[in-house]
Every structure is written in C-alpha cells, then in structure tokens.
C-alpha cells in the first residue's frame, strides 16, 4: 500500500506538502490538492483516519443536530438536508453523527458527549433560533458550526439559508398573479423562528406594494376552536401563505371542514408533504434542502479560512415556487 512518502517521491514534493494537500489545507493551492489526490488514488493510497484523528485530536465525523420537535423525524425537508450533508461528507471521508431528543436537555447531553468523548469538532445545526441553549454551548467550545437558517439580529456565525423575505413575497405574488387570489392571509406558528419572521415580512411587503390589507394569524398548536373562529371571522379569505407546509395543511383541512364547497388556495414552504395528503389547490415553495445540506458542509470546512470575507460567512440557496407539492427524488 502506498504511503504519503511514496506519493511525495513520485511527485517530487515534500512529505509535508502532500500531507497538507490530502487534508485539504487551504495553504496548498486547489490545483495542487487535486493533483496530489489524483496521484494518491492511482497509487492506491488509503488514509489512516485513526492516526490522523489522534494527531489532530478530532474525529472524522460531523455532528448534525436536530431541533427539538416531534415532527422532524418524518419531515422530508430534513431528509433532504441529511442527503446533501452526507454526500459532501462522504467526499471528504467524514461521517455524520446525529444528535436528536425530545427535550433540550437530551440534545445538550448528546452534544456534550460528542464534544468531550467522541472528539467531534464540527457541527451542523438544522435550525437557528433566538437564545438557543445548544448554540450557546457550541459558542463556548473550541468547535466550528454552521446553522441552517440565519442568526438572529446582532449575532454572527456561519449559516446557510434561503432568501426568506423574497420567498415570502414570491409565495404571495404567486397566489395573486397565478391563482387570482384577492385576499390572502399569512399563517405562522407561535414559535417565532427567524425564517417565519422573514417570510412574514415578504408577505407584508408584497401586500403593501399592491395596496392590499394584510392579515397575519399565529396558529395555535392545539386549539381548533380558535382556528375555526379565525376562518369564520374572515369570510373574504380566499388564499393562505403559510410559513411551512404543515401549518398550511392544517389551515387548509380546517377550512375545507367548515366550507367543503368553497375553494381556497394555499402556498406552503419546504415541499415536504406526501402527495396523497394534498390536492391541486395546495402549492409549495421548494427550498432545495439537498443543495442546502451540501452548502452547509462546504461552508463548515471552508467558511473560516478567510476571516475577512463576509461571503464566506453564509451561503444563500435559491428557492422555486411550484404548482403543487410534487417532489423529485
């Protein structure tokens, strides 16, 4: 089996240069890194991860942290994120390790174990939230992390996101321009996620530009009576911009239960619902989670190389508005 010394001799390079190139050290040019990896593959070189990890005191694993939410496990959006993350980690000879729990305390214990016992130094959080205890922990540790979703105002870290203000406006415009909705309302959860605030802002901007009255409804988690009351108090409502597909589906089903013969158009976000749960009046904005997952890994490994570059601190993935929640696998 070829060694780093064999590769260095073959290419006329120093052992340290070859070692750095194989470990994606940014001090080595991208051209040299590619050439070293090509020769290493031709010579049958296999990296010794255990030795590398002992030297670096870092596992060849990335911790992937889920939000505390009972619905995340079967949400197609998170499955897409994991697919994108895993694709890029495989190319870098890393694996993913998942932290998930029913409570914040469970997730915190999991993450602490990853840092202290498994020597994991890189993390991707599949969410971003104000005053999150897990993020507070990571910021106190000698680790790198990326969030899916931008930080709250006044906070800075690496993140991947969509342009959610534009996505909110695009969803609203789609209802009005393509589906001829006259009075769309905006439905959000009561969690105050940053992406919800941005999508709401996009909705408000779109309604203001058209001189239409904006109506925002915070949907209670377990209070069907309040939802029915809201629907009945807004008889002109003929469309809904929902902050995500799950919220949109709940509003849609409650509306159809009250008014089975009336048509209402709904736009949700994430393109995450099975097709059998929706019909031609339910539409979704595709946020391209696979691309977001890939971008998160690339940012995690490369985002802090240039401390002066604002571009390297974030990655924005474009969204697309679809006719209905039809996914392509």
TrEMBL record:
Lineage of the species this protein comes from: Bacteria, Bacillati, Bacillota, Bacilli, Lactobacillales
Protein's name in the database: LacI family transcriptional regulator
Keyword terms of this UniProt record: DNA-binding, Transcription, Transcription regulation
InterPro entries: HTH_LacI, LacI/GalR-like_sensor, Lambda_DNA-bd_dom_sf, Peripla_BP_I
All residue ranges annotated as the HTH lacI-type domain in the record: 2-56
Keyword Transcription: yes
Record carries keyword ATP-binding: no
A single MF term (Gene Ontology): DNA-binding transcription factor activity
Protein's organism: Lentilactobacillus diolivorans DSM 14421
